[in-house]
Amino acid sequence: METSDMPPTLAESTTNSESVPPHPPRALVAAVIIMGVMIIVGAAALVGIIIYRIVHHAPTPVVRQEAPALSSSLSGPALLSLPRRVGEQVTMMSARPDGALAVMLKDEQGNMRIVLWSPEQARIIAELTMTHPTSP
């Protein structure tokens, strides 16, 4: 038999590593097992919650808001009587969440007014006047 040029310790470690696989650390094995158990428990809990909610489903109550009653003095539709100034035109109208209407009026000089009108009460709630700055 021929002798090898390699030192005997290297030849033995190579042969040994091919025949017997290395053992993983115990902490790694424990972590893998714990994570597997956690995944199974989590999936089971999720399925349980879904089944519970399907079985114990309660219909959501529908809250209906009734429109505020118009005052008895109003007969027919509420009309806005807005005194317009000379050359003034409505440039925008917007409904607000509280039911009021915001009406924006602008004249030829650039002066603007915003009027808040309540159709339920048929009256003007507020008015904001913005004048165009004049040069001195």
What does this 3D model show about the protein?
This protein is an alpha+beta fold. The protein contains two helices and four strands; from the N terminus they run ααββββ. It has helices at residues 8-19, 26-55, and strands at 89-95, 101-106, 112-118, 123-130. It has a four-stranded antiparallel β-sheet, with no helix packed on it. The radius of gyration is 41 Å and the shape is elongated. The mean pLDDT is 78.
Mean pLDDT: 78
Helix content class: 25-40%
Order of helices and strands: HHEEEE
How much of the polypeptide forms β-strand, as a percent range?
Answer: 15-25%
- The overall strand count is 4
Q: How large is the radius of gyration? A: 41 Å
**Largest sheet at a glance?**
4 strands, antiparallel
Shape: elongated
Report the end-to-end length measured between terminal Cα atoms: 118 Å
- Can you tell me the residue ranges where pLDDT is under 50 for at least 5 consecutive residues? none
How are the strands of the largest sheet arranged? 1-2-3-4
Name the structural class.
alpha+beta
SS field, number of helical segments: 2
